[in-house]
Amino acid sequence: MRRSLTALSALLLLAAPAFAEDVSNLNPGITTSEILATAPVHWVSVDQIAASLEGQAPMAVGFDVDDTVLFSSPCFYYGKMKYSPTSEDYLKMDAFWTDIHTNNCDQYSIPKDVARKLIDLHTARGDDIYFITGRTRGSGGETLTAAIKKAFNIEKMNDVVFTASSENKVEFLKDHKLKIYYGDADSDMKAAIAADIRPIRVMRAQNSTYKPEPKNGKFGEEVIVDSTN
C-alpha cells in the first residue's frame, strides 16, 4: 500500500502545474487601487444621448469629420508619404488638399460605427446636420460631401463646411445656432464650449495617424463609450 501511495504522489507531482515558474510577465495582475485610480470621465452611450433629447424640438447639430465620422488616416498617410515623408508640412500644401479631394481619397476612409448610430439618431429626430472640418478645401473643389453622403446613406445633406481654423469653426457654430457638436479633438471640444453649446467627445482610434492622443473628458464633456470604431 505504501508503495502504491508513493507512486501516486509522484504522478500527481508530475501532472501539477509548475507554480514555481515565474509567470509575472504573462499575468501581471492589477490592484484594486489601480482599478479605482482611473480619471473621472462622464461616460455616455448613444442610447443615453437619445434619451436626453426626448421631447426636444428638432435642432441643428454638428459633427467633426476626421476621426469622428470617418477613419481617414489612410488618406493622410498617403499624403504624408507623397508630399513630406519626414514632416507634417504636407498639411500646409494646397497640392495635398487638392489631391485628396479631387481624387476622392475619402473613398478609402472607413465610416465609424458610432457616427452611423449618431447620424441615424439625429436623422430620425429631423435634426439639421452639419459636417464641419478643419481641413483646407483646396483649389480643386471637394468630394468629401459626396463621400460622407454615400458612406452614411444620407438622402439630403448640407455641403461639408471647411473652416481651416478653430476661430472660424466657433463662428459657424454660433451663427447657425447649433446645439450639439461631436468631435474627437481637444480643439473640437474647446470650440463647442466657446460657442456655448453641448460638447460630446467621440474617441479617436488608437491607430489614427493624428498624434498625440487627446485626453478624453479633460473639459468635463460627455465621452461616448466604445466610440473608437
From TrEMBL:
It catalyses: a phosphate monoester + H2O = an alcohol + phosphate. Its EC number is 3.1.3.2. Keywords: Hydrolase, Magnesium, Metal-binding, Periplasm, Signal. It is found in: Periplasm. Its main location: periplasm. Its cofactor is Mg(2+). It is an enzyme of class 3 (hydrolase). Residues 1-20 form the signal peptide. GO terms for cellular component: outer membrane-bounded periplasmic space. InterPro entries: Acid_phosphat_B-like (IPR005519), HAD-like_sf (IPR036412), HAD-SF_ppase_IIIB_AphA (IPR010025), HAD_sf (IPR023214). It holds the Pfam family Acid_phosphat_B. GO terms for molecular function: acid phosphatase activity; metal ion binding. Homotetramer. Belongs to the class B bacterial acid phosphatase family. This is Class B acid phosphatase. It comes from Shinella fusca.
